[in-house]
Design a protein that fits this description.
With about 500 residues, the protein is α+β, with helices and mostly antiparallel strands. About 30% of the residues lie in helices and about 25% in strands. It contains 14 helices and 20 strands. Helix 5 (about 170-175) packs across helix 6, helix 6 packs across helix 8 and helix 7 packs parallel to helix 13.
Length: about 500
């Protein structure tokens, strides 16, 4: 089967002929009294365990999908694939129950699932092989697999069409072992996050995905409508405001791993539906959060035995101490100019000299943030915490404790030139919080009425009183990209959002 999205009429005709041949085999199997789709098969031995614990005297009972098949008259060799490993199976007429070879084996195809009972031996080429004493058809595949060939452990004509891989992930997982390994590692990373946070007394919770007002980040939401309530709702863009309500309610250490949604662009590091980790700790601040994040990442790396990663063509050691710098210091270093006390007009003049294109009429904080993304961010290869951001781009963070009113206590963690984590000493002054929300609303040019509304329930909650709190958000998809040395977010999301075709 050719790996493309739109097949020609000739290709479609060839595919339909293959499917019809398989359906004919399926009907023959049924006519001879066999159920080609039995309800259950007791798989007593995993293929991976058979390979690890070889016992040539033991009778094994296992199962898997046929991924290679070589029929030779009254005998056949085939390989079956389990969840992680494959094993060769030798099938011979006189070693099987009566008629099984003619009725079942002769009608097998690549992609079929079979159950196998038998004992182990080594072929003349020293390949571990299961000699079958019985074969049970578990599922007849009527659509052919991608055109796979294997020789000396190498796969040829692999299923590698990027677009088709994402749209038909089930084929990708069958054909490409490394793809499955990435998603197994993703699960291990998430499990390690849970184990780490649980070990330091954080409580995992679930907060609403459908929200009457969205907040906690600058982003455009997806909208939906609830018929019974007769109201518009939004898919959440962040978990933050609900998790803070729980801090206010007395859950002092809280976290959530869940889906967030932003109705924005798609690129190598952004997907509209993505997985976030957010955690909040009462009686804490941004510096405590930095220590927790660094310890958590190093713990995951240690548990998964990751020495170094190669991310965006950079070899990075995550076991070393993470760098710590400030926003203005690192920006001035990379722009080679003192910029903190300059006016907006003066900054735009510098931009013009440097021949950088940035939209007009930005506030100073947003302008500096744009410059940071151009001049600094791509150069932050080694793990680096950047502290002390402009207040205009950090409406939920506390002022710098040294009294600077235009700087807040915030960090972003960068690895390999990309942002990985974001953290605040969370704002808990209800009057200051309300004023900042009002300033945000005044800046909005959007016609979306929701963006012009105050989240009065959250403000009431803050007025009840929230203790000093540190909070962190980490993109799970980007963390997995980093720890699996993957450069496209679609390769770490099982079913990414794609264009229609």
């Amino acid at each position: 089967m050719k790996a493309n999205l739109k097949m020609s009429n000739k290709e479609n005709k060839a595919l339909n002929q293959l499917i019809n041949v398989r359906i004919d085999k399926l009907n023959k199997i049924k006519e001879r009294g066999y159920n080609p789709y039995p309800h259950i098969f007791v798989k007593e031995d995993k293929i991976v365990d058979i390979i690890k614990n070889i016992d040539e005297k033991k009778k094994y009972k296992t199962a898997g999908r046929i991924i290679s098949l070589r029929k030779m008259g009254k005998a056949s060799f085939l390989h079956i694939l389990g969840s992680k490993e494959k094993i060769q199976v030798y099938v011979k007429t006189d070693l099987l129950p009566d008629s099984i070879y003619d009725d079942i084996v002769r009608n097998l195809d690549l992609g079929d699932f079979i159950g196998v009972e038998g004992t182990l031996f080594y072929t003349r080429t020293k390949e571990l092989t299961l000699q079958a004493s019985n074969i049970i058809l578990l599922t007849k595949s009527i659509r052919p697999l991608p055109n796979l060939k294997e020789k000396d452990g190498k796969v040829f004509f692999a299923f590698d069409d990027k677009e088709l891989k994402y749209r038909k992930r089930y084929l990708d997982l069958i054909a490409n072992k490394k793809v499955k390994e990435v998603f197994i590692k993703r699960s291990q990373i998430v499990n390690n996050i849970r184990i780490f946070l649980n070990s330091i007394d954080f409580l995992e919770v679930e907060t609403p995905i459908l929200q009457p007002l969205y907040g906690g980040a600058f982003a455009k939401p997806f909208e939906t409508y609830h018929n019974s309530l007769d109201r518009k709702l939004y898919l959440r863009i962040a978990d933050e405001l609900y998790l803070k309500r729980l801090i206010i309610g007395g859950i002092e250490r809280v976290y959530e791993i869940g889906k967030d949604f932003r109705n924005e662009g798609i690129d190598r590091t952004h997907n509209p539906e993505f997985t976030m980790l957010e955690f909040y700790k009462a009686y804490s601040d941004v510096y405590d959060m930095a220590n927790i994040v660094e310890t958590m990442i190093k713990t995951i790396v240690k548990n998964l035995k990751i020495e170094t990663i190669n991310f965006n063509d950079n070899n990075i050691n995550l076991n070393k101490e993470f760098n710590r710098v400030t926003f203005y210091d690192i920006l001035e270093k990379h722009m080679s100019i003192s910029i903190k006390d300059l006016s907006i007009d003066e900054i735009y003049k510098i931009i013009n000299v440097k021949d950088v294109k940035i939209e007009e009429n930005l506030s100073k904080g947003k302008l500096l943030d744009k410059l940071f993304s151009i001049f600094v961010e791509p150069n932050l290869i080694e793990p680096t915490f950047v502290f002390d951001y402009p207040i205009e781009i950090s409406p939920l963070a506390k002022h710098k404790r040294d009294g600077a009113k235009d700087i807040v206590e915030r960090f972003e963690l960068f690895v390999g030139g990309y942002e990985l984590a974001n953290s605040f000493s969370e704002l808990n002054d209800p009057i200051d919080q309300k004023n900042r929300f009002l300033e945000q609303i005044a800046e909005k040019s959007s016609s979306d009425e929701n963006m012009k509304q105050l989240d009065n329930d959250f403000l009431e909650a803050i007025e009840i009183g929230m203790p000093p709190t540190g909070g962190v958000g980490i993109g799970i998809d980007r963390l997995v990209m980093m720890l699996t040395s993957t450069n496209n977010i679609k390769d770490v999301i099982l079913f990414p959002t794609l264009k229609t075709f």
